[in-house]
């Protein structure tokens, strides 16, 4: 999303998990999650202070989301707060401590935790061009989580307005860094340019470029995002039509199938109204019918500080996404 800079969160649907090869034969979607958002808040203030500019996620809320069937939590955070000096510099122990505490809590419940630098391919506001430094950053981060198979590595949130070859190179550097750390069992989700939109995956050139990414462990799950408002930015409670979700997934689905790749919708959301809920069900049903290539979908967003945000799925009777949308869509996942 264009506004993403503002928030995120995590929660998910769970099921007893079989080995990946067996999961593929099931028609229900494997991953149902939520963006846990808040640790990247105050993005204009790279330093920030815990509890003032940014916040970590509420374990009780995560438990409630797990109880609803969620099994994937996409943990938003900022690279500048994890390695404040340089890409290759030391970790901030408190920020890393909080991230690791979240990962341990979620994976300790048998659910997936997605490590997601919410950086748009930028560091301190500048497009990252130091691919070797980016590889080192990922190698350092992955070394911490290399023995936890329930961790998923998301190379970066929503590259945009960047040279396509650079987006390819950064994704490849991230993959190489993760594997060089000895993290061999974990899934990695590359993201594309153009805000990694599913609807523009092929037309933007992401497909033709990122198809050439190489993972020696063959565990890439291409991550795309999709909103249902007119400009696809996820800033409106209105949906274009009751079939727009499915329509915006079709070209990417064909690309995944033609190229024998796997994908996940790492962000999706829509407003609390009849047309949007119809569109959500139609699109999730489509993902389910194509679960040979689609792993699931991750709602945007939850987190303690979202307030009356239109898509707020933090567990609370005050949040229509929690009280109305979640019950309408969760059956597609578990
Ligand atoms: C999910 O979180 C990211 C990080 O805050 C944000 O950029 C993105 O816009 C969020 N998605 C939505 C729909 O807000
Ligand atoms: C950035 O955050 C720090 C710590 O809370 C605060 O003292 C400072 O005023 C903030 N700066 C801006 C520009 O918001
Ligand atoms: C989380 O961050 C806070 C604030 O910096 C810090 O006091 C606390 O020790 C951190 N928690 C962990 C588990 O590292």
From TrEMBL:
<keyword id="KW-0378">Hydrolase</keyword>
<comment type="similarity">
    <text>Belongs to the glycosyl hydrolase 5 (cellulase A) family.</text>
</comment>
<feature type="signal peptide">
    <location>
        <begin position="1"/>
        <end position="18"/>
    </location>
</feature>
<keyword id="KW-0326">Glycosidase</keyword>
<protein>
    <recommendedName>
        <fullName>cellulase</fullName>
        <ecNumber>3.2.1.4</ecNumber>
    </recommendedName>
</protein>
<dbReference type="Pfam" id="PF00150">
    <property type="entry name" value="Cellulase"/>
</dbReference>
<dbReference type="InterPro" id="IPR017853">
    <property type="entry name" value="GH"/>
</dbReference>
<keyword id="KW-0732">Signal</keyword>
<dbReference type="GO" id="GO:0009251">
    <property type="term" value="P:glucan catabolic process"/>
</dbReference>
<dbReference type="InterPro" id="IPR001547">
    <property type="entry name" value="Glyco_hydro_5"/>
</dbReference>
<dbReference type="GO" id="GO:0008810">
    <property type="term" value="F:cellulase activity"/>
</dbReference>
<feature type="domain" description="Glycoside hydrolase family 5">
    <location>
        <begin position="35"/>
        <end position="302"/>
    </location>
</feature>
